[in-house]
Amino acid sequence: MSDDSDREYCLIDATTPPSTEGPPYAECVLCRKPTEYPESYKGITLCPVCEWQEAQRTACSG
């Protein structure tokens, strides 16, 4: 008998950045390259490369 509250689940945030028509883009917080996010976006912004690397680091492992 297993209890669901004892399990740990990997929660993946699959939201997409808000659409932008063009520059200015926010800087990546890790490498400072332009991201796909507008400058007005609130929160952590990562460029596609750093976003991929972060997903690799935080991926659930069985």
Summary of the model, kept short:
Residues 1-22 are annotated as: Disordered. By secondary structure, this protein is α+β, with helices and mostly antiparallel strands. It is 18% helix and 13% strand.
Which terms would index this structure?
2 strands; elongated; 18% helix; alpha+beta; 62 residues; two-stranded antiparallel sheet
Provide structural commentary.
With 62 residues, the chain is an alpha+beta fold. The protein has one helix at 48-58, and strands at residues 25-27, 34-38. Helices cover 18% and strands 13% of the residues. Strands 1-2 form a two-stranded antiparallel sheet. The radius of gyration is 16 Å and the shape is elongated. It starts with 24 loop residues before the first strand and ends with a helix. The model has no long low-confidence stretch (mean pLDDT 77).
Topology:
Blueprint: E1 25-27, E2 34-38, H1 48-58
Antiparallel strand pairs: 1-2
The major sheet is characterized as:
2 strands, antiparallel
Uncertain parts: none
Would you list the SSEs in sequence order as H and E?
Answer: EEH
Q: Order of strands in the sheet with the most strands?
A: 1-2
Give the strand tally. Answer: 2
Number of separate helices: 1
- The chain-level structural class is alpha+beta
Region (Disordered): 1-22
